[in-house]
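Figure 6 in text form: structure in, sequence out.
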C-alpha cells in the first residue's frame, strides 16, 4: 500500500469530531450543577441561614414546664376558703390513635369510653378522623381513680397531663364572696376574678436540646417559676357561717326571694361577714341559674326606708336647727307637705324628743327636721356618709347606689328623702354608714382584705352627736320601740328598722323590702350589721318583725365568739326613756 493510501486509511479510523463536543457538554453540565449547588449553599449559609437553624431547632429543641398551683384564699385566721388541688387531664393524639389502630381494639376502646362516661361512638367522634390533628382533650379534671383505671388500659395515643382544680371548703357559705374559677383556672366571679392576677403564678420554663433518641444534651434556658401569692381576707369564717345560717333560715321561714347580711368592724372598716341567700355550691355549679352567682350585698340596690332616719336627725344637730333637748310635735299623725300627705305608721305619737322620733320611727318628726335646714346641708351629710358612691371594696359588680346631685328639690321630695325614699343604697353602703356612727363619726373605706391598721378615715360627725345617736338607736330595741325583737340578752345593742315598698312602673307595688341596721355593743361599739330580706311572702314583712330577729341571733353568737364582755344588766348611758314627751 502506498504511503498516500495509508494516510487515507488512517483518517478514516480517527474518532468522529462529535466526541469532543459531548465531552464539552458534559463538563459544562457538571460545572453548572456545581455552580448551582455552590450558589444554593451560599444562599442558605450566607443570605438566609435562619431557616436551617429554625428547622434544626424544631427537631431538637423542647420546652418543659412545671405546673404552679393557684394561690390560696384564707380567712383572717388562716382558714382555707379556696385551695387548688392537683388533678389530671386526659388527652389524645388523633394521629397516633389512627395510625396505631386504637379504635380497632374494641374491648379496650369501649372500656376507655366507659371510664370517661361516654359511648364508644362519642369517644370516636371526639378523636375524629383527621390524622393531621395532634391534640384533643378527652376529659379534664379527672378523679385519681379514673386516671388509674385508664392508665392501666394503656391505649395507644391516650396520654395524661397535670393541671389543678379549685376547691372551696366552705361551699355555699362563702360562694358569692369568693366566686369561682373556670376549667382553665381563671377567676370568673367574686374575689377569684377581682384578684386573679395576684392569685395566678407563672410556671417555670426550661429550654433543652435533645438528640434523636430524646435524651437531653444541652440546657439552653431556665426560668424559675413565679409562685402565686396567697390572699388573706378580713372575713372571719366563724362569723360568716353564723350569718349565713341565720339568713338562710329567715329567707326560708318568711318565703323571701333573697336576703343579704353584712357585718363590719367599725374601727377598721374590715368586712367580717358578707352572706347572701339563696346561694349555690361553687364546687358543683351544674344547673345553677346564672342570677344566683350575683353578690346581692354589693350589686342590689333598694330604698333604705327608715334605716336612713339617723341622718336627718344628725344633720339637724350638726346644722343647729335642733339640739339634744328638741321636742317635735307630730300630732295628729299626718302632715301635708307640698300637696301630698306624710303619715306616721300607727297612732298619733304627739310630742316626741329626738330619741322618741327614732324609737317610734316618726316620718313626721324627721320630715320637720329635714325641712328645718337648707336642703344642701342635708344632702351634704348624705353624700359625706358614703351614699351615692362606692364603699372602697373595689369588688367587681359593686353598685354605687342612686342619690341625685340636682340642686332643686321640692319639700315633699326632701320629706321622702328623710325617711328613705328618693334614693337607693346597697347593703354594704348602709353598713358603712352605721359603722361611721359606731366609730364616733369617722367614716372609713370598707375593705375585704385583712389589714393590721385600718384605712385612713374622715370625720363626718361630731363625737358627741355620734354617741347620742347610738343611745337613740338603743331606744329602738327597748320596750316601746319598733325592734324589740332585736334585743340581745346580756348586751346593749341598738339599730333601726326599715320597711319599704318596692318601686314598679308608675308607682309602688305590693312587694316589700324588710331591713334592719344596727351596732353592737353600744357600750363599746365593735360591729355594724345590716340585714336585708327581699320580698317576704308571709304575713310578716316589717323590718322589726323579720329582720331584727336575724340581727339579734347573729349578734348573740358573734359577741360570744369574739369574747366580748357582757354589759351589766339594765345599764344605759342615756337615761332618757324616749317616746312621748310628758309635756
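Output sequence:
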Amino acid at each position: 500500500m502506498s504511503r498516500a493510501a495509508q494516510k487515507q486509511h488512517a483518517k478514516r479510523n480517527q474518532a468522529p469530531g462529535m466526541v469532543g463536543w459531548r465531552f464539552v457538554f458534559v463538563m459544562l453540565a457538571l460545572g453548572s450543577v456545581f455552580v448551582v449547588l455552590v450558589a444554593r449553599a451560599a444562599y442558605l449559609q450566607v443570605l438566609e441561614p435562619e431557616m436551617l437553624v429554625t428547622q434544626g431547632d424544631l427537631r431538637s429543641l423542647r420546652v418543659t414546664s412545671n405546673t404552679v398551683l393557684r394561690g390560696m384564699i384564707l380567712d383572717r385566721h388562716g382558714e382555707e376558703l379556696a385551695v387548688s388541688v392537683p388533678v389530671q387531664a386526659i388527652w389524645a393524639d388523633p394521629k397516633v390513635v389512627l395510625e396505631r389502630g386504637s379504635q380497632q381494639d374494641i374491648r379496650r376502646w369501649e372500656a376507655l369510653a366507659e371510664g370517661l362516661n361516654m359511648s364508644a361512638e362519642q369517644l370516636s367522634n371526639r378523636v375524629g378522623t383527621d390524622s393531621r390533628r395532634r391534640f384533643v382533650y378527652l376529659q379534664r379534671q379527672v378523679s385519681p381513680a379514673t386516671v388509674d383505671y385508664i392508665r392501666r388500659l394503656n391505649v395507644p395515643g391516650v396520654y395524661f397531663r397535670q393541671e389543678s382544680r379549685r376547691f372551696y371548703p366552705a361551699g355555699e357559705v362563702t360562694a358569692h364572696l369568693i366566686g369561682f374559677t373556670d376549667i382553665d383556672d381563671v377567676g370568673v366571679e367574686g374575689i377569684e376574678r377581682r384578684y386573679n392576677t395576684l392569685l395566678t403564678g407563672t410556671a417555670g420554663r426550661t429550654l433543652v436540646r435533645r438528640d434523636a433518641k430524646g435524651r437531653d444534651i444541652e440546657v439552653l434556658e431556665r426560668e424559675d417559676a413565679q409562685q402565686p401569692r396567697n390572699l388573706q381576707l378580713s372575713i372571719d369564717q366563724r362569723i360568716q357561717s353564723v350569718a349565713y345560717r341565720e339568713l338562710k333560715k329567715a329567707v326560708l321561714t318568711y318565703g323571701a326571694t333573697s336576703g343579704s347580711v353584712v357585718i363590719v368592724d367599725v374601727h377598721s372598716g374590715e368586712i367580717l361577714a358578707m352572706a347572701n341567700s339563696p346561694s349555690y355550691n361553687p364546687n358543683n355549679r351544674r344547673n345553677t341559674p346564672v342570677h344566683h352567682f350575683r353578690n346581692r350585698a354589693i350589686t342590689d340596690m333598694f330604698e333604705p326606708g327608715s334605716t336612713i332616719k339617723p341622718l336627718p336627725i344628725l344633720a339637724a344637730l350638726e346644722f343647729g336647727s335642733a339640739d339634744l333637748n328638741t321636742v317635735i310635735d307630730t300630732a295628729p299623725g299626718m302632715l301635708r307637705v307640698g300637696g301630698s300627705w306624710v303619715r306616721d305608721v300607727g297612732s298619733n305619737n304627739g310630742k316626741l324628743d329626738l330619741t322618741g322620733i327614732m324609737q317610734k320611727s316618726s316620718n313626721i318628726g324627721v320630715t320637720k327636721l329635714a325641712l328645718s335646714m337648707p336642703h344642701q346641708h342635708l344632702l351634704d351629710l348624705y353624700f359625706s356618709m358614703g351614699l351615692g358612691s362606692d364603699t372602697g371594696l373595689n369588688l367587681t359588680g359593686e353598685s354605687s347606689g342612686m342619690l341625685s346631685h340636682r340642686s332643686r328639690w321640692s319639700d315633699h321630695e326632701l320629706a321622702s328623702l328623710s325617711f328613705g325614699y328618693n334614693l337607693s343604697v346597697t347593703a354594704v353602703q348602709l353598713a358603712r354608714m352605721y359603722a361611721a356612727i359606731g366609730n364616733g363619726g369617722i367614716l372609713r373605706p370598707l375593705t375585704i382584705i385583712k389589714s393590721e391598721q385600718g384605712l385612713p378615715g374622715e370625720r363626718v360627725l361630731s363625737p358627741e352627736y355620734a354617741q347620742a345617736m347610738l343611745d337613740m338607736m338603743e331606744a329602738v330595741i327597748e320596750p316601746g320601740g319598733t325592734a324589740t325583737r332585736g334585743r340581745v340578752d346580756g348586751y346593749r345593742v341598738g339599730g333601726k328598722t326599715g320597711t319599704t315598698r318596692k318601686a314598679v312602673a308608675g308607682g309602688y307595688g305590693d312587694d316589700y323590702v324588710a331591713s334592719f341596721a344596727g351596732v353592737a355593743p353600744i357600750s363599746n361599739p365593735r360591729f355594724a350589721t345590716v340585714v336585708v330580706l327581699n320580698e317576704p311572702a308571709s304575713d310578716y314583712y316589717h323590718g322589726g318583725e323579720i329582720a331584727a330577729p336575724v340581727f339579734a341571733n347573729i349578734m348573740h353568737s358573734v359577741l360570744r365568739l369574739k369574747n366580748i364582755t357582757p354589759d351589766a344588766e339594765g345599764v344605759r348611758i342615756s337615761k332618757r326613756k324616749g317616746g312621748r314627751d310628758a309635756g
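Caption detail: DSSP finds 20 helices and 19 strands in the chain.
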